[in-house]
Each structure stands twice: as C-alpha cells, then as structure tokens.
Sequence to fold (1770 residues):
Amino acid sequence: MPKKKIKSKNHNVGAPPGELYYSGSESNNDVKISLIQYNEATFSEQTFLDVDSMLKEVKPGLIKWINVDGINRLDIIEAVGKAYGIHPLTQEDIVHVDSRPKFEEYSRYVASILQMLYYDNGVRYEHLSIVLFEDTVISFQEPCGGDAFDVIRTRLRECKGRVRKMGPDYLAYALIDAVVDHYFYVTEELGEKIELLDEDILNNIHMNGIMHRIHELKREVLLTRKLIWPAREMILNMMRSDTELINETNSIYLRDVHDHINRVTETVDQYRETLNNIMEVHLANNANKMNEVMKALTVISAIFIPVTFIAGVYGMNFKFMPELETKYGYWITIGFMLALMIGMGVYFKRKKWW
Amino acid sequence: MPKKKIKSKNHNVGAPPGELYYSGSESNNDVKISLIQYNEATFSEQTFLDVDSMLKEVKPGLIKWINVDGINRLDIIEAVGKAYGIHPLTQEDIVHVDSRPKFEEYSRYVASILQMLYYDNGVRYEHLSIVLFEDTVISFQEPCGGDAFDVIRTRLRECKGRVRKMGPDYLAYALIDAVVDHYFYVTEELGEKIELLDEDILNNIHMNGIMHRIHELKREVLLTRKLIWPAREMILNMMRSDTELINETNSIYLRDVHDHINRVTETVDQYRETLNNIMEVHLANNANKMNEVMKALTVISAIFIPVTFIAGVYGMNFKFMPELETKYGYWITIGFMLALMIGMGVYFKRKKWW
Amino acid sequence: MPKKKIKSKNHNVGAPPGELYYSGSESNNDVKISLIQYNEATFSEQTFLDVDSMLKEVKPGLIKWINVDGINRLDIIEAVGKAYGIHPLTQEDIVHVDSRPKFEEYSRYVASILQMLYYDNGVRYEHLSIVLFEDTVISFQEPCGGDAFDVIRTRLRECKGRVRKMGPDYLAYALIDAVVDHYFYVTEELGEKIELLDEDILNNIHMNGIMHRIHELKREVLLTRKLIWPAREMILNMMRSDTELINETNSIYLRDVHDHINRVTETVDQYRETLNNIMEVHLANNANKMNEVMKALTVISAIFIPVTFIAGVYGMNFKFMPELETKYGYWITIGFMLALMIGMGVYFKRKKWW
Amino acid sequence: MPKKKIKSKNHNVGAPPGELYYSGSESNNDVKISLIQYNEATFSEQTFLDVDSMLKEVKPGLIKWINVDGINRLDIIEAVGKAYGIHPLTQEDIVHVDSRPKFEEYSRYVASILQMLYYDNGVRYEHLSIVLFEDTVISFQEPCGGDAFDVIRTRLRECKGRVRKMGPDYLAYALIDAVVDHYFYVTEELGEKIELLDEDILNNIHMNGIMHRIHELKREVLLTRKLIWPAREMILNMMRSDTELINETNSIYLRDVHDHINRVTETVDQYRETLNNIMEVHLANNANKMNEVMKALTVISAIFIPVTFIAGVYGMNFKFMPELETKYGYWITIGFMLALMIGMGVYFKRKKWW
Amino acid sequence: MPKKKIKSKNHNVGAPPGELYYSGSESNNDVKISLIQYNEATFSEQTFLDVDSMLKEVKPGLIKWINVDGINRLDIIEAVGKAYGIHPLTQEDIVHVDSRPKFEEYSRYVASILQMLYYDNGVRYEHLSIVLFEDTVISFQEPCGGDAFDVIRTRLRECKGRVRKMGPDYLAYALIDAVVDHYFYVTEELGEKIELLDEDILNNIHMNGIMHRIHELKREVLLTRKLIWPAREMILNMMRSDTELINETNSIYLRDVHDHINRVTETVDQYRETLNNIMEVHLANNANKMNEVMKALTVISAIFIPVTFIAGVYGMNFKFMPELETKYGYWITIGFMLALMIGMGVYFKRKKWW
Fold:
C-alpha cells in the first residue's frame, strides 16, 4: 500500500460487473487456505494450498471457518465462490481492495466487506471480507493482516470465552469485533502523535517542520475518517438487517461493536478539531514570534537613525558652522544624542514596543 | 484522570467481549458497597466491604439502592453481576471508564452508562453506571464522585421531595438528574473562564499567554461536548424506551432531564462559537497593535533618511562645492532639513500613517 | 439581566425537581396580579396583590386571563399553582428565568415557556410562561415586559380584532404572537447596527473600534439565535400537539406564528453570515491599508539609501581621491544622485510599488 | 426596494393577525385589475380599475384568471378577498411584501406566496401571490413585475402550448414556472459577474476595489439564497399536498419546477463557494505581491547599509588612520565595497530573496 | 463546453414547458441513429440518419437498443419521442444539456438523465439520457461521448458477460454503470494532479503559480461534486422505484452502482478537504519563507545601523574632539565597532532571530 493515499486505483473501470480484477499490489502466489471446524466439543485446524483439497475435508455438523489468506489468486477466489455460490458481485468486492465497507444480504449468505486498519509509519489498511452462511464463515484477507484474527483462532483453540458455544454468526461477529478493536490502535497511535505535537508547540520546540507534521496528521485523520465512516454504516446495516442467518440474541453483540465504532468516529472527529486548534495556535505563535523579532529590530533602527542624522549634520563641511568652533560643542552634542537615544528607548519600552 | 485527554486508553482491545478489564487509574482496594433500603415509611442505610454480606441484608418489599463506590475491584463487580444477572457486556461497560454514555434494555433490567463531569483545574470526568431492576437500583461509580449522589441520599434520609414516595425508576431518574445537574457546574466554570478571557482581551491585558488560554479552553469545551453529546442521546433513548421498568407517569421527569441536557449542549455550542469569536478578535487586535508599532517606527525612518542624505551630501569632500563657502549655507541647509522633516511628518499624519 | 450573557446561572442545581427557585435578579415584592374576564359581550379588568382575593372574583362562564406580573414571589406562584393544579415541574420552569423555551402538555393544561426579547443597549430578554386551561389563560412574566401584552389588553378592551369572539386558546395564541412579533424589533435593531457598520467600513471611518463592534454584534446575534431557536421548536411542538385545549381551526394562526419565527431565524442566520463577510472585508481593508503605508515608507528608504551611500563615499578622507579634485565632480555627483533617485522612483512607480 | 437588504421592515408588528398592512414602498393609486376568461375555444381579456365592475363581467363555465397589478390599495385586496372568501391571514401575506414564500391550503383555495427575482444593478425582488380556486386563479403582484406573466398571457392569447387545454391548476403552475424561470436570469447575471471577477483576479487587474466587489457579490448571493430556499420548500409542499384543486396528472409539471429550483439553489451554493475560493486567491495574491515588494526593497537596504558603514568609517576624522594615507586606499576600498555589494546581491539572488 | 463552468446557460427560460430547446454548442447536422437488436442467440447492428428508416427495421421479440448520437437535431428527438410516446417534459430534459441528473417514472417508461464526465484539460461533461421501455432502451448522447458505450456495444457483440442473457433493464443498468465507471477516471486524474501539487509543496518548488493551481483544482473538484451529487440521488431514486420495468433481481446491480458513486463522492469530498489542507500548508510555508527573509535582512540593518552611527560621530567636524587626536583612537574605535557587531550577531543568533 502506498504511503500517500490521495488517489485510489480503479483499473477495472469499464469491465463488466462481476468480472474479477485484483487491484492490490501483492504478487505472491502462496495463497494459504485454512479450515477450522469446531463445535463445543471438537476443534480441528488444517491448512491447504488449493480449494479442492480443502473442500474434501469439510465435515457436516460442525461450524466451519474457512480463511483465505491472500486475495491475489483470482482462481482460488472463483473456486471458493463457485463451491459456495457466492455472487460474482460479491466476489468482485472481495478482491477489489478499494471497495467501500458494506453489508449485503443475498439469499444464501450475508457478506461484510470492510477494512482493517493498522499503523505502520502512517495509517495503513487491508481489505477484508467476511461471508456468513448457515453453518460456515468464509473470510478473505490480504496476507499481512493475519494477526487480527489470531486472537479469535486462539480463543477457538483454547475454548476461551463464548465463541465455541455459539453459532457461526457469533464467529462472524467476533471477527468483525476484532477488526473494529484494531481501529483503536490506530486512533491511539494518532492520539499519541497529536499529543506530542501539542507539547512541542506549547514548548515552542521543533518549530520548523511543524506545519508539515500537522499536514501529515490531518491527512491521516482524514484517511482514517474516510475508511471508518462507511464501516460504521455497514455495521448499522448489519444490525438492522432481518436476515435469519444472524440470531436475534446476538444482536446485542453487534450493538456493542456499533458502540465501539461510534466511539472511534467521535475520537477521530475530536482529533480533527484538535488538529485545527493546534494549527491555529501554531500559526498565531509563529506570527507572534515574528512580530517580536521585527519589533525589536525596528526599534533599534528607530533609535539610531535620528542620532545618525545629527552626526551627519555636524559632519557637513560648511565653512561657517559656529557650533563646530565652540569648546563643548562636541560633548554637548554627544550628550544630546545619548539623551535622545535613551529617551526614545524608554518611550518605546513604556509603550511596550519591545 | 490525566489532564490532557486527547488520547483514550483501550487496553482491552482484542479481549473477548464481556471480559472485564478495568481501564481507569485507581489502585485502591477499598471498594465500599452501600445498601439503602426504603419505602415511604422506613429507611435503612448500611455499608459493606464485600458482596455476600450485603446480599444477606437485602429485604423483600422495600426499594433497594445498592451503590458500589469504586470499580477497580473486578471480583466485586462480577459478584454483583452474578447475583443480579447482569449481562457480561453490561459489566464490561460498567468497568470500562471510557465507554460511551448509552442506555440499554435487557430482559430483566435497563442500564444507563454515563459520565459525571466536574471541574478541578480542567474538566474532569468519572464513569458512572445505573442499573434499574424491578425493585432495585444498583449504581457503580469511581470513588471521588460520591458527592453527586449525597444530595439524593440526604433527600432519602430526610424524606425530602418526592423520592421516598415513588418507585425505583424515580430513584434512577433522580440519580441521573443529579449527574446532569453537575454538568451545569462545569459549563458555569467554563463560562466564567471565557468571560474573564473576554474581558482581558477587551482591556488588552495579559496579551502574552492568551492564545494558549484560548487553546486550553477550546480543548475543554471540545472535551465537554464530546462527553455530553452521547449522554443526551442516551437520555433520549431512555425517554423513547417502552420498557415496563420505567413508569409512564415518570416520563415527565425524564423530559425535564432531557431539557436540561439540551440546555447544557446549547450552552457548550455557544461557548465554542464565542471562543472562536474571541480568538478572531484577539488575532485582529494583535495584528492591529503590531501594525501600529511598525507604522510608527517606519515613519521615523522615513522622516530621517532623506535629511540624513542631505547631510551626507554636504559632508562630501569635493574641492569645489560653492554652497559650503556661502555665509548662510549652513543655516539654510538646517532650515530646509527641518522644514522637510516637519513637512513629511505633517503629510504622514494627515494620511493617518501614524 | 447582565449585559454579557456568556455564562448562565443555575443556582438550583442539585435541588430536588419541582422545588421552586427564582434565578432572576428582581427583588421587588410588589407582584401585581391582574384578572381579565370577558366574553364577546362583557369585559372586566381587576388588579390584586394576593391570590386569594383574586380567586374570589373569578366568575364561571367567562374566559379568564390571569396575568402575574413578577415571578420573584415564590409564594404567589405556588398559590396560583395549587389553585389551578399546575405541576411542580411547570412551576419550576415558570420561575426559572433561564429555562429553555418549551411546550408541554399535561392532563389539564398545556404550558408554553418562552422568552420575550427586547433591545435596550444590547439584546435583553425576559422570561414568560403562558398556561392554557379549558377556560383560563394564566401568564407569568418578569415586570418590565408588560408592554408586549398591552396590545392584547387594548384589543380585548376595545373589542378590536377577533380576540373577544374566540376562545382562550386564541388568547394564548395572541399572547405568543405578540411575543414573537417583538422578536422583529430586536432583529431590526441588530440589522440597523449591522448596516451602519457596513457603511462605516465602506467609507473607511471609525476604523479603530470596528473589530470590537463586530465582536459585540456577533455575540448578540449568537445570543439571539440561541434564544430564538428553541422557541421555534416550541411553536412547532405546539402546532403538532393534538391536545383538545387548542381548537383545530386555530392551528392556522399557529402556522402563521411559526412562519414568523422562521423568518426571524432566517434573518438572524443571514446576519451571522453578513457579519462574517463584514469582518473579512474589514480585515482585508486593514491589511491593505497597512500594506500601502509600509510600501510607501519602504520606497522612501530604498530611494535614499543608495544615494546616501554615494555621499558617504565622497565623504571619506582618503588622501588620494582624484574625483574630489575635479572641477565638476560635485555637480556630476549631485546630478548622478538625482538621476538615480528619479530613476528608482519611476521604476517603482511603474511596478506599482507605491 | 432598497439596494442594501440587510434589514427587513416589519411595521405591522403588534397589529392583530389578519389586519392588512402594506409594507412596500409603492404609493401609486392606479391598481389595475385584469380579467382573463378562457377555455380551449374562447378567450377574452379585460382591464378594470375597481373590483365591482370586474366581478360583474365574470362568466361561469370559463377558467378565470384575475391579475391584480399593485398591492398597495388595501381596499381592493379586501374587496377581492371578500368576494372570493380569502382568509384574512392570506390577505395579510398577500400585501406584506416581506413574507416568506409559502404554500397554504384552505378549504376553498390554495395559496402560493413567493418572490420574483430580477437583476437591476443588484438583486431585486417583488412580492407575488397566486391563489387557486376551483375555476379561478387570482394573482397579486407589485406593478413592475408585469413582464414575468406576459409570457403566459401571450401563450393564452395565441393558444400556444398546452395552457388553454388545461385547467386552472395548470395556469397556476405556469405562473409559478414563469417566476422560477426568472430566477435563472438572476443566477446568470451573478455568474457573469463572478466570472468577470475571476478573470480580473487571474490577470491581476483592478486590484483595488476587488474586496468590495467580492463583498457585494457575496451579499447578493446570500440574499438570493435566502429568497430562493423557502421558495423551494414552498414548491415541495405544493407537490406533497393532496389538495383536490391540483390535478394528479399535473404533479409532473410541479416536479419539473421543483427540479428547476433545485438547480438554481445548487448553482447559488456553488457561487458561494466559488466566491470564497476567489477571495482566498485574491488575499493570497495580495499578500504575495506585498511580500515581493517588501523583499525587493529590504534587499536594497541590506545591500547598501554595510557599505555605507564602511564609507562612514573612512569618513572619520581621526588623526592617525594609516589607510587614508596609502596611495590606492581609496580604490581598494571602493573595490571592496563593490565586491561586497555584488556578493550580497548574488547571495540573495541565489537564496531567491528577490 | 467552455473551460470555466461557473455560469450555466438557460436560454429557453420563459418558454412553455415541454418546448424543446437545444442549449449545447454542437452545430453538426449529422446525427447518427444506431439500432442494436439482440437476444441471447442473435445480434444485429444498424446505423441510420433518420428516424423513419430506423423504425422500419425494428423487429418484435428482440431487445432493442436505439442510440441517438447527437442531440442538436430537435426534429429527430421529436420524431423518436412521438414514435415511442416520450413525454414533452422528458424530451426537454433530453436536449437541455444542463439539466440536473434525475430519474423519472412515466406510465410506459422510466427515464434517467445524467452527465458523463471526462477529463480533457479540465473536467468536461456530456449530457446523456437513457429511456427504458418494456423491450427497448433508447439512449441520447452528445457525439464525443461515444466511447463510454463502446464497451457495452463490444460486450453485446461478443456476447461477453451477462448482458445478452438479461432484459433491457440490465442493458440500461449496464449503460449507467459504464457512465459511473467513467467518473473514476476523472477522480483519478484530479487525484494525480493533487498529489503532484502536494509533492511540489513539500519540495518547495514552482511556488509561484501554486495558488492558481490550487484555485483551479478547487474549482474542478467543486464542479465534479456539483455534477455527481444529483447523479447519486438519481441512482438512489432508481433503486427505490417500484416500477415494473426494472426487474427485482437486477436491483442488486443498481446497489453496486450506488456503491460506486458513493465511493466517488467520498473521494471528491476527501479531495476537497485535502486541497484545503494543502492551501493552508502552502500559505503557512509562504509566510514562513517571507518571515525568514525579512528577519535576515532586518538583522543586517540592525547590526550595521549602530556602528554606522559611531562612524558618523567621529566624522563630525567639531574643533575640540579629544579622541580624534589620540594615537590609537582609530584602532580602538574600529575594534569597538567590530566587537559590537559580533556581539549583536551572536545575541541575535542565540535568540534564533536568524
């Protein structure tokens, strides 16, 4: 994923709908397919490199979680799609790394498309899709994001929490919850950077690159916001859906996720406004400092210019300049010049001009 | 609670939902449990250090208010939760000090999660939860917030107002009302600070740190807003709820609380805009003052530079400079220079350049 | 009422709901109670100082308008409240001068709480409450606002307009209409001040205090907005209410009031934006004027500094400076200096630097 | 209508509702009443100066369009109102030139109040009312707006388009459509002025009055917006109305008008943002130009000040200054000064300081 | 289409509704009419220059796509309209190149009016109309936009994708989808320009014209936004429509288009904010650079002015100036002046004034 995410790539523009096109940047061919089958009593975990051998291992009566790690191998996506009857449009969304988070109901399944955020020298994201069938959950992800789901895998394996006792809808919920929980890492990271920035400004240090730091953070907050807002809408749609695939009693968990994502969006909005405030303070500080310098320097000029004029006057070569002949003319002039300079200095000081 | 509340802590990210994690900063182990039982005729008040001994004292037929003062002892929260059948997700919200205000209905109870605000050298908040059962109200709070509920305790004890005559729903309402009433203290405190700032700007004093004062106040107004907005939504949800636990006739009181919180949010929004106005005035004032200074100083330069040039001319050492030989050359030159300076001064004055 | 209305007072925070607390600043004890009884044929008007003697005069079969002039005597409010069965929460709203405009339905009456605005060296407001019963209208107001209702009193007395022929709901409407009509005075006053400001800026006069005038007007527009918005909501609620106390056929009049208040809010919003525009123009003007001055002054320096240098050169005391010995050296130098100055002046002029 | 429309006049504030008050500035007494009667086959057009003679000419079975040209003769409005049963509140809206656009349904008629905009050295508007009865349309307008309806009159007379074949509702629609079409003229005029402004800024000409031109245009866009927004709402209300006076099949034409007014409002909003952009560019340009000038001038000072100092040094009159005695001292000094000036000039040039 | 699209043309203002007026700038008379007839098995493609000969070729039982390439020949539009019963208002929208995107249902057809965007030295757009009948799709377009539909034509011809197997509603969807896909090209182009701008600002190059580049991009983003927003609304209306002409099962494809256009609008909104951020950084950079220059130059003045004064003092011609007679007076003075200059330089450096 490129660092600057202003432009988005859409190379499959013009292709017929449902034609798969992988828009990401992976080129690795090793797409791993893992199959976890469990119920409250049993648990098995297997890894495959192709779809057919995986399909052979699927056992009825168990809850199945198929995780496809890598979405650049379109043949694998299509094979899974064909085996499970996933609509071509859904398949297109699964492989299109820039599609908007969305929740869609089909007759046999519901699909949640969303992005996982992480922070690595800037806000990064990965494309994720979770498809929920009657007894199966299929998740598709770009490879590096594996860690978000590891928590769930461990919970399944060690039978921690509720997840082994519940249906596939709870598993789907748990996966989405894990993703939304990751959003907090990103906002925390952004929050720390903003706090650091704020302190640097209060202490007036590192003044040079601050505008660029603010710009960079604003851009990241903007990107985060753009990524999270539709995810929130997606979860809302999921909550309101009356699909039979999601058990009524599990809606309470979705409500919880919705609450989390609301908190994230509020935090991001707060960051946005905080960054604007910080920028205002920074600009005002800068202008202030500049003003101080200019005032001090201009005061120096203003004090010396009149006396320099006087010196110039007595530097004139007129033949008849009576003062020049007097005995104390020099000392009187020097005295007057000093008095004038001190007087102006005091006057400016009193007027708080420096 | 830290002073700068830009970043929020979420250390239980990744944990299974419903797993309790205390995210606050208390480490004191002395969690006090108080049990108040009353009806219109009787009133008793007891304090315990553990849940079991408290549960033994609970008498049927009375309205019970259990207040848990301190939410860092997860074992106590779990014991209460188990005894009263509080859902793990609710328990999680009770101990998670950064959860958003919300109102949630469960089959046997309704839960209101909110924050109490107070002002102590900055806007501070405490996490509060009020769980309403058929004949019991359980409230959970971080320790220092005890005083908000003291008012209610006194009213119960002294049988003031309506509270002893009404059901547990009225008690829950009274607790929420007490919390919302506290919001006014915070907005008053902020309002006073803003007024002080406004006066300082009108009188042009303390100009140095003003930008930081504005920034600090903006941040506090922003934080207050972020905390109060979801509380408003919470109370609206509570009003609209059709739970049987809240008596229809008491909805009028909720309407009153909703009205209060509306007033608070409007005040906070007004503060926000006022602060923006104040900042604009301050920046304009600053620029104005700077302009005045620069103009005055530059006028001095502009007046003296031409005459200094003239003096320079007659300071030249050319052999043949007829003016130097004339008798009144010096006086004429001096006169011309003075006239020029006065002329420029008058011209600049007329053009209002200083 | 204080001039600067940034902060609002809420001293009854923490008190039980329904406990009366007068939050205004009147201390006069002379609360006047006036009783007007009328139907199409008859009209009587009486004034009392206590509630009991007033109640004795109430005659059945007539429409009764009780106006309580002054809300600082809580005993009187309570007596009226008791006699007519006004809910303690309504009573609280009646005496609490900072409560938000609202419309509330109770079983026996409907209550409209609102503020009357007037302009007296700044936007001022008074607290007003209108309670409508089946055959009675009770209005409560702070004393100085009497004139708003005088129009209605005169119309009743002289049997002008429709008001004597209609029921008490029309009277209540007429009172609210009189209040909303007063809002126009305030917006007119603000509009005049804004127009004056605008002209002063176009004519570049009174430049000094303009930023403070803008600030002051912005604050007043902000306050007006804050006061009028909930009033609009109140009237909307009143329109939508299905209470039997308000006759269906009178809803057309409410629609008219709603229309008026809409016009007021639109005007206030327009003022707000106009003030922002004015401020932008003012700041740009100021910067422009400053720029002109600085440019002119700097041009003077730039023209004289090079020639002063040349004069300095020929003021040096080197023994061997051939130019000094030449016959026309002085005149050539003077000529060159003049040419340089004129050349620079023309160049700067052409570049439009002054 | 005054040019500066910041303030609005509301002299009938305090009057009983329904009391007519003409708030415009016409004083001409010649109110023309025209009566057009038509069906698909026949067409007649007559003009009257009083209502009674007009009423005598009204024939049953034809569609009647009564146009009252001038609304300052309250007696005429009242006579028409009485003859056709127009509610006093509607009459009030008809003569009150500043009332908001609105659509109101009464039992026997529906009334559309709106403003016609035209551009004559600024945005101007006229008050218009169209009242639709079962077989009659009555329109009221301020005199100068006659041309907007001329198009319709011609179409009726020459039997062009659909209007002769359709009912009175289509006529009412056609009148409103003619008014909304006029809005485009205003936006076109504003658009041309904005484009001119934009070009002037790109070409850096007429820089002086630009801020005032921007201000003036912003004000006009603001006014246009304020006038058009409620008109849009009015048309929406008309579309949604289920009155029997408007034929279902004609709602398609209203949809078209609604579409037009939507386009106007979007254009106005675009103008608003464009003006803000233009202002930003203008301010940045101005600052830029100022910076260039100041830098150039300051560079001149910076180059000459050091060498002037050197000249000053050798202008000192110390007895023992060995350099003064050397043969090439003068030339060396001159050379050094030139080298210094050129060096500084090159250095500043390289740093892009001028 | 002109480059600067601030103003829109509306020359048919005042014409009766439904009267055709071509508001574009084409004058070519060669309007091509292409007729494609297909079902899953057969496909034929013909081109005509007049409507009648085209109508003769229409065969029942096939899906017909009539594409009218060029909308300036009103007679052709009217002939098509008459043959297919297209309402005059729809015909008006078809030829009016500035009409808002909209979706309208009539009894026999539904019409989608929208704009195709492309980027050619600025955002350009073309007017498009798609009318869907029971077994026919008629599309009208301005000539240069042919390429957007070429993709569909190829897919039909080569029987690629789903389009040959589906009904005319799918064809209409495919056409709209092709148009919306083109929006991505425009946003990509804008995105690239914005990224380039951003890099230039980070690298501080091409500083001169940057404000105009920002202005130009802002204007294009604004125009794009204005064009795309109503298109989004149009698609939403199409989705929500319950017309029988669009098959329920195809609504999933509309959902996909809606999703795409949502992504486009979000991207455009992000661009808008990014441009604002970029402008802020640019202005701050500019101010910063200016400040640096001014500070450096002013420091030079401040350092040399005091010593120049000292030199001036010893250049005075007083008879009695004892220092002038001393042996080392000159050297002491020179040393003092150097020390003063270095001291000031160090002091200013330490204060970070340069």
User: Anything to note?
Assistant: Residues 32-284 of chain A form a domain with the Beta Polymerase; domain 2 fold (CATH 3.30.460.20). Residues 70 and 142 of chain A are 5 Å apart (CA to CA).
